[in-house]
Each structure stands twice: as structure tokens, then as C-alpha cells.
């Protein structure tokens, strides 16, 4: 099975930002094919760890911490589930757009980052091959990939944001869909 970590640039109410080709990682074949891992990833823990990782990056730059929003968490989870059910990485899917999700979360001004990765599979990133096996590794990998993409980094470090929510979905095939929403 081929595995690749794919990112779509963050969206902040003004349309998607295209990531340069060097920010999108290349696929490689997994060295472990069709193996079912006995461990399961705790999605709620990954969500919390991503939240902490993003706040750490903001703190390192003298920016305020983002509070966790229940509404943004819920909309992020719903969108990650929706991407998984469509097997598509996108900000906008049939019946669901970033603006609609922000509105559902009672957010007038906000943004969104999405990503897709794998657990228990080899993935090639700009820093080499990774094999993610636990919540902390997955959270750090997602955050690092977003920080390495100008559009995602801009969303994560935008000074006007005050709240955030994260949603992680993992399919039976170990494919990870991640959404992080931001609100002013």
C-alpha cells in the first residue's frame, strides 16, 4: 500500500492558498503491507496534543495562546469525518464549506487547516521517512507539516485568532484526516 502525507494549504475566509510543490511530500511504498496494528490511536488525545503543539509554536513567537472551543472542535471533527467518508482531502465538500462550518461554530471570522496522513505506515516527508505509532508522534508530525507550509503556518500564527478546535479521524485503513479551525 502506498502512503503519502498530503497537505492542503490553510483557508482563512479568503480562499485556499496553494502550497509550493516542495511542501507536498512524496509517496513511498510501505515496508509493512496489510499489517493490522494491535494498538489503537486515541483521537481525542491527538486533538489535545495538536492544540498544545500549536500553542507551543505561538508561545515561542510571543503570541497569545488559543483557547479550545467546543463548537470548533465539533465542526473540525465533523469535517474530518466527512473527508474520510468521501475519501477526499478538501476544505469544501458537497453540503459543507469552511464558511458554513465557521458559521455553525458561531464564528464570524476564522480559518481552517486540513491535512491527511497515515499511522502504522511508512510516509515520506520533507525531513525523511516517518512511521507514526502513537498519539504524540502523530500530533507532532501534523503540526510540523503545517508549520512547514506557508499557508498553514500563517493560519496557526495569525495574531487575531483567539480560539481553535481540532478534529481527527482515522479510517480502518489507518488513513488520518485532520482539521484545525480558528476563530477571531
Description of the molecule:
With 184 residues, the chain is an alpha+beta fold. 34% of the residues lie in helices and 25% in strands. The chain has 5 helices and 9 strands. It has helices at 43-60, 70-86, 98-104, 135-147, 150-156, and strands spanning 2-3, 6-11, 28-29, 67-68, 110-118, 122-125, 128-131, 163-170, 175-183. The strands form 3 sheets. Strands 2-5-9-8-4 form a 5-stranded mixed β-sheet, with helices on both faces. The chain starts with a strand and ends with a strand.
| Averaged pLDDT | 83
The span between the termini is: 41 Å
Shape: globular
For the CA atoms, what is the radius of gyration? 15 Å
The poorly predicted ranges are 1-9, 11-38
H/I helix tally: 5
User: Percent of residues in helical segments?
Assistant: 25-40%
Strand content: 25-35%
Q: What's the SSE blueprint?
A:
Layout: E1 2-3, E2 6-11, E3 28-29, H1 43-60, E4 67-68, H2 70-86, H3 98-104, E5 110-118, E6 122-125, E7 128-131, H4 135-147, H5 150-156, E8 163-170, E9 175-183
Parallel strand pairs: 4-8
Antiparallel strand pairs: 1-3, 2-5, 5-9, 6-7, 8-9
Helix pairs in contact: 1-4
